[in-house]
C-alpha cells in the first residue's frame, strides 16, 4: 500500500467517524454531561519560620578555662545548661508549631449563601 493510499484511507476513516458522531448527536442523543468536582488535595508549603540561634552551653565553655574544673563547678554548669536547653527547646517547638499550623488559602471562599 502506497503512502497516498494510506493517507486516503485515514481521511476516509476520520470522516466516517466524524459523520457517525454528528449523526448520533443529531438523532437526539444528548452530549456527555460535564460535572465539575472540587477535590481537596494537600499541597506541601515551604515553612518560612526562622530557626532560633543555638545558645552557647555552659559546659562547652569549661574546656576553655586554663585551670582544671572541679566537680562543683561542673555540676553548677550542667544545671545551668539544663535550664538553657529547656529555653532553647521551647523556641524550637514554637518554630515547629508555626510550621505545622494550617495555611490560610488565598483562594478559599466562604460557602455561598442560599437565596
Explain this structure:
- By secondary structure, this protein is mainly α.
- The protein has two helices and no strands.
- The protein has helices spanning 3-26, 71-100.
- The two termini are 66 Å apart.
Q: Main sheet?
A: none
**Percentage of residues in helical conformation:** 40-55%
The parts where pLDDT drops under 50 for at least 5 residues are: none
What sort of overall outline do the alpha carbons produce when their principal axes are compared?
Answer: elongated
Q: What would the average pLDDT be, to the nearest integer?
A: 78
Descriptive labels:
47% helix, 2 helices
Describe how the helices and strands are arranged.
Blueprint: H1 3-26, H2 71-100
Give a short overview:
By secondary structure, this protein is mainly α. It has helices at 3-26, 71-100.
